[in-house]
Amino acid sequence: MANSDVPSNGNQVEGTVEDVVIIGSGPAGFTAGLYTARANLNPLLFTGNDYGGQVSITYEVENYPGFPEALSGPELVERMKQQAEKFGTRVEFDYVGEIVVDRHPFLVRTANGREVAAKAIIACTGARPRYLEIPGEKELMGRGVSYCATCDGFFFRGKDVIVVGGGDSAVEEGLFLTKFATRVRILHRRDELRASKILQERAFANPKIEFVWNTVASEIVADAEGKVAGVKTLNTVTGETGQLETEGVFIFVGHLPNNELFKGKLELDEDGHLVTDDKMRTNVPGIFAAGEIMDKVFKQVATSVGQGCAAAMQTEKWLAELEDHPYPGFADPRVFRQRVAVPV
Ligand code: NAP
Questions:
Q1: Ligand 1 centroid, distance to 129 Cα (angstroms)
Q2: Mean pLDDT, the chain cut into blocks of 10 residues (344 residues total)
Q3: Going by CA atoms, what residue is nearest to atom 29 of ligand 1?
């Protein structure tokens, strides 16, 4: 299927109509690119500002099938990009700032001033780290507070650091930090980790890791130079307060979906994920989603890849159907508005 000229009723943009625009460059986005390119849809992929998504800041990926020797997150992203491009995905380093979904073809507007019409969109905008939202956190970002051990671990060589959280990210990144730090204390609000057993076992066996159970950070305090000096703590069982000295605080308390683009336009769940059905369809016909923007359960590279593949296959099928039928309800504007209405 070739990209076609803008129909006469598509009065907002000049040029061609893309068959499919993919938003996001994590595993879901590049897989959607690979599959839609191989379906001859000539996909256009906008990377967003965080090229590669969260896996690109992961030191080592050892649970992605096919790589028993493990590989770094950036290397995996690069390989995925190369494979998508090999079959024709056009990758543009640009950030999508707006989508217009109450017309068809849809409109995609980017930070670099591109305005693209698209018959289908695959949303793969992923997620970002959640903040603790405690005093001192924002003020000390980059001055000892970090959300990325791979990026910042090196600066803590020979230092004492604290990790906040009890999930896979906290334990995995805590293990990584033992390469640099003299001691890594993992603060967790309960007395049982959420992280997978294999990571737990590694952490328990690592002499540089200590656990501070039933404890939350209530404030991050600075020294006279404005750098992290410690963390004020609160025991979640006894209510006891305290302070731990440290030079670095790494926060891994979950993620928030990157949904700003979709608010008021596509249906979101109570946690802000795009709502999709089992065919990766959002509530607007022609807009599909894959990866952590819609996945509130699995959040693995392997599952994001699978969702990207599924969304691409459904997009291909949907575009084929569009050749025989007009856009759902397009002939009747009232029906069209109803179809794209966002439930409140
Ligand atoms: P997560 O699984 O949601 O864990 C977040 C952790 O932060 C939980 O332990 C939670 O405590 C704690 N937490 C949340 N809010 C907090 C607060 N305000 N104060 C203190 N602690 C707080 O998030 P994640 O570790 O980033 O992992 C996200 C997903 O990615 C998961 O599905 C995970 O399996 C996956 N992942 C996988 C790998 C891997 O396979 N190697 C690596 C990284 C991430 P509670 O436990 O009490 O809720």
A1: 10
A2: 41 74 98 98 97 88 92 95 98 97 94 96 96 96 91 93 97 96 98 97 98 98 96 98 98 96 97 96 96 94 97 97 80 54 48
A3: 299
**One-letter amino acid identity for 115?**
E
Residue 158: domain span:
145-251
> Is residue 270 a part of any domain in this protein?
yes
User: Are the CB atoms for 137 and 39 separated by under 8 Å?
Assistant: no
Atom of ligand 1 nearest to the CA of 165: 7
- What's the CA gap between 159 and 161, in Å, rounded? 6
Query: Which residues are known to be catalytic?
Result: 148, 151-152
Between the CA of 167 and the centroid of ligand 1 the distance, in Å, is 3
Task: Note the pLDDT of residue 13.
Answer: 56
- Compute the distance from residue 193 Cα to the ligand 1 centre, in Å: 9
Together in a domain, 221 and 272: no
Ligand 1 pocket check: which of 67, 133, 168, 303 to mutate, most ligand atoms within 8 Å of Cβ?
Answer: 168
Residue 11: its pLDDT value, please? 40
Residue 136 lies inside a defined structural domain of this protein: no
Could you tell me whether strands 106-110 and 96-100 are parallel, antiparallel, or unpaired per DSSP bridges?
A: antiparallel
Q: Which of 202, 290, 310, 182 is nearest to 246 (CA)?
A: 182
- The CATH number covering residue 219 comes to 3.50.50.60
> Where does a domain end: 251, 284, 302?
251
Which atom of ligand 1 is nearest the CA belonging to 298? 32
User: What is the number of H-type helices and E-type strands within the chain?
Assistant: 7, 18
Q: Which residues of 78-92 are buried (b: 16+ CB within 10 A; e: fewer)?
A: eebbebbbebebbbb
Res 327: pLDDT? 84
Examine the domain organization and report whether 158 and 197 are in the same domain: yes
Please list every protein residue whose CB sits less than 6 Å from any atom of ligand 1: 63, 132, 164-170, 172, 189-190, 194, 216, 252-255, 299-300
Closest ligand 1 atom to 170 CA: 25
Residue 117 belongs to a domain: yes
> Which one of 200, 234, 251 terminates a domain?
251
* pLDDT at site 14: 60
The confidence score (pLDDT) of residue 210 equals: 98
* 335 and 245 assigned to the same domain: no
In the prediction, which pLDDT does 338 show?
Answer: 54
pLDDT value at position 342?
Answer: 52
Find the 254 Cα to ligand 1 centroid distance in Å.
5
